[in-house]
Structure formats: C-alpha cells, structure tokens
Amino acid sequence: MSRSVRVVWDDELTSYDFGPGHPLVPVRVELTMALARELGVLDKVEVVPCRPAGDDELAMVHKRDYIDAVKRVSAHGRPDIAIGLGTGDNPAFAGVHEASALIAGASLAAARAVWSGEAEHAVNVAGGLHHAMPAQASGFCVYNDPAIAIAWMLEQGAARIAYVDVDVHHGDGVQAMFYDDPRVLTISLHESPRTLFPGTGFPSETGAEGTAVNVALPAGCGDAGWLRAFHAIVPPLLREFRPEVLVTQHGCDSHALDPLAHLMLSVDGQRTAYAALHGLAHETAGGRWVVTGGGGYELVQVVPRAWTHLIAEVAGHPLDPGTPTPAGWRELVGRRTTEVPPLSMTDGRSPEFRDFSTGYTPEDPIDRAIVATRNAVFPSHGLDPLM
C-alpha cells in the first residue's frame, strides 16, 4: 500500500529516563526496536537518525521562559515545581532538556520527511508526549512532540492537519495548543475523564468550529466497543475534513494488561486500529502519514509487540499475528528485565465489532459515548449525528 517509509531512530532516544520506579521506562522502546529488527520489519523501511529540536522549533508551541527553565533543570537536575519538573509524574533529572528535545527532533524529522515528499509515511515510536503544555510539564511529558510537528507543518503552509490520538489518556496538550485553530482537527479516543488522568476530554470540549473531538469511553471497554466507537466517529470526520496530512499518536496503554488504566483492548484490537488508520491516511490525506508512539506501561507483554505491529503496518507489510517472537529477542528480554516474554505476536483474539449504522442501544454506555460525541461535533462538519 505504501511507497517510501522512514523510521526515525537514535539510541540516545532512550535517554528520556525519569529514573527507577517510574512507569515510563526507556526499555520499552529499546525492546520494540529490537523486536522489529529481529522480525525483519526494519529491513522494509529506511531507518534514519535525527537531531534535537532547536529552541525556535520548540517555541512554536512552548513558551520561551519555559524552555529556559527546563534547560536550568537540565543543567543541575534540581526540581522546578513551578514548571512541573520534580513531581512524581515528572521527576527532574540532569539532561532532561536534551533528552526531550531529541524526541521532539525525531517527530520533526518524521514531519519533514512526509511534508517534503521524501517519504510517504514516517514514524517515531519514542514520541507521542501529548500531555506537555505550553509552559508546563505534565503526565510524563516535557516537550509536546506531536504538537511541534503539527505546528512546523502549519508554518510550511499546511491548511488542514488531522491528529488522531488512540492513547488511553486524553490528548490534552495537543488539543490545548490547537483548540482555537480550525486548521487542526484533533480527535482523541480515551478512557472517560471521570475515571482517569488528566480529567479532561469530555465531548463538550469542541474547540474552534467543532475541530476538537473527544470520545470518552467507559472503563472496561474492550476491542469490540472501542472499534465500534472508532468507526462511528473517526472515518466520517476525516472524510469530511480532508486533511493534507494525518498525524496519529499510538499509546498502547488501552491494553487490558496496562497497569495505569482500565480499558480492555488486546494487541490484536490495537493492530486492527493501526490498519484502519493506515487506510484512512491513504483515503483522506493522500497517503501522508506521520506516526508517533505514546503511552504504554506493560513494558514486555504489550509495548514491543504493539509497536512492532505498528511499524510493520506503516511499512505496508503487516505481520501475521501468529508470528512467533524470535528466540534472540526473548533472550534480550531476560537480560534486560525480570519478565517472561510473550511467545507470539498475538493475544489470540479476532476483533470484530458491530457497526454503528446497525442501530443505537441507549442502555449501552459505549453507544451513549458515541452519541454524545456525534451530537457535539457532527453538525459543525455538516454531518448528521444520527446517520
């Protein structure tokens, strides 16, 4: 399906490390890249390096005094609670600016490749730090790399960019940065803010001309309900908006094993969502697709498999879900963690869902979530919420 694909990678991307005991452990991306390499997925893409984002690039979405404050923390490692560094979620560490700027630079490299036409798709699995605010670190995120990539493409002349966020947590930082900008359509599918951080992402948050879209799903939602909601909301909006570029964030913390949230997806359901977004990139955005990672805190069972499937899908060579995990990779897991590695690339599920066009069940909390979102934003896009 795809022509040219880039994976942006530098081993230094694992330097984004909040220290022992923190849920966001860099080994998750290390194991992802190792699994993709051993399965031959990286043989089908161009792996390219990146440079850190410069101050002017960071300042497209972040306040300059915030960038300066992050640099001061970075120089000595001492907390600055006023900017959110030194909290339990965002511990201060020496080198935090450099590590964060490199992740932003990797997403910028992906955006440049796609916008310039050097690549049709590009992915930064270390990125997706969607909670960072203009002047505040939040939710494990210091610099908001998806927002920086979007802002850069807007500066190059993009008239319409769509951002779809499938992380279990609301994509609040990206939404906030473009809330009043009708050139950017942000769609976030996440666990209800009533039960999960950051406490935002209600359907009533609609932004400029209905371009902020929030699908707040009930705790316990699994593959079938999640896919039903996705297909009821995302394809019609993307088809109507017709973005020049599709940017997607792929936090895999929606998985049933994730320790920080309460949705119940499988790796198979997540893989199905990646394929749907790939198809929509070609259908609605001329194939221009910028892809990032995101959250995901089950470091061995979930993240490496989910994001290896993601890279394979982006490359246009999806993996057979029954593919065994390589022995060499399982040995690496044993050396780098205390966990028992999964033996195959599947959870053994065959995700199916009932399309919303078949009818609405008012008693179903997932259907109520779908209807709340459609009622809130579909009319702004000339779409009938009931059709």
From TrEMBL:
Pathway: Ketone degradation; acetoin degradation. One of its GO terms (molecular function) is histone deacetylase activity. GO terms for biological process: acetoin catabolic process; epigenetic regulation of gene expression. InterPro entries: AcuC, HDACs, His_deacetylse_dom, His_deacetylse_dom_sf, Ureohydrolase_dom_sf. Gene3D superfamilies: Histone deacetylase domain. Keywords: Acetoin catabolism. Residues 22-313 form the Histone deacetylase domain. It comes from the Bacteria. Signal peptide: none annotated. PANTHER family: HISTONE DEACETYLASE HDAC1, HISTONE DEACETYLASE HDAC1-RELATED. Belongs to the histone deacetylase family. This is Acetoin utilization protein AcuC.
